[in-house]
Amino acid sequence: MSTATSITATILGCGSSGGVPRVGNLWGACDPLDPRNRRRRCSLLLTGTRTDTAGTTRILIDTGCDTREQLLDADVDDLDAVFYTHEHADHTHGIDDLRAIALNQKKRIDVYFAPTAAKTITRAFSYCFQSPPGSGYPPILTGHVIHAGEPVTISGAGGTMTLLPVLQEHGNITSL
To answer: Could you give the C-alpha distances from 85 to 9, 27, 62, 90, 113, in angstroms and in order?
Structure first.
């Protein structure tokens, strides 16, 4: 498959772990009169396209609590992959919002995460990776463990996109 000739990064959210403003109308140093200061939790959408096809390749980075609204606002109805930077709630607790995408695509979504994040996320959201006994809900995700410094290539209708995970310090943990 050809490489995407154009890649667009859309910031879906850049707020703190509680969003801005926090519940209670807490704006911190942000001016509540400036609409740009109303920010959702961190998430990024990468969209790849090629000049020789109308398709797109879409990669979502993190699924915070605002994922549903973020995907609706960005008019996303399909995803080729989801990458998790780390296992904190403000980056993972929108994982259930991927169900509508997986059912729409009629296939599981590939998700990529570091070993520690994989262990935490697959345990906390095991029903997304395998159907619980007696459940009528199909699994919606397929997990893939990745490591810093090892490129990951995602293929989609808009071409291939290669991401290079980089290890960084994030408080008392590391993230990609």
So the answer is: 16, 26, 7, 11, 7
- If phi > 0 it is left, if psi is from -120 to 50 it is alpha, else beta; for residue 19 that is left
Q: What is the pLDDT along the chain (176 residues), one digit of tens a residue?
A: 688 899 999 999 887 777 777 778 788 888 888 888 777 889 999 999 998 888 999 999 999 999 999 999 999 999 999 999 999 999 999 999 999 999 999 999 999 999 999 999 999 999 999 999 999 899 999 999 999 999 999 999 999 999 999 999 988 999 99
**Structural domain for 90, as ranges:** 6-175
Number of domains in the chain: 1
* CATH at residue 74: 3.60.15.10
The CA angle 89-105-153, to the nearest 5 degrees, is 70
Count of C-beta atoms within a 10 Å radius of residue 14: 13
Asked if residue 1 belongs to a domain, the reply is no
- 161: tokens are 């996109």
**Residue 53 placed within a domain:** yes
Q: Does 159 map to a domain?
A: yes
Is the residue at 95 inside a domain? yes
Q: Which helix (H) or strand (E) holds 174?
A: strand 173-175
Nearest residue to 163 via CA among 76, 46, 20: 46
